[in-house]
Amino acid sequence: MLDILRSSPLFSIRRLGFALLLTVFVLVTDVLFIRFMDIQSTADFVYETVINTLGAYGGFSIMALFNKPNTSR
């Protein structure tokens, strides 16, 4: 899956969707089990989801920018 994310174009809906799913999974796990972040309302959850999704999307985009093509194929 990460190879697909690295080789996709700079602005990718696939990368954004993956970042959103990853962020929602981590935040739901935190809210239900860990309680590391103090998320108490739906507005807090949406705010944290947006901020963390943009951060993950930016990280995946930087990985895509510096991806070296695999020439062994």
Automatic annotation (TrEMBL):
The chain crosses the membrane at residues 16-37, 49-66. Keywords: Membrane, Transmembrane, Transmembrane helix. This is VanZ-like domain-containing protein. The lineage of its organism: Archaea, Methanobacteriati, Methanobacteriota, Stenosarchaea group, Halobacteria.
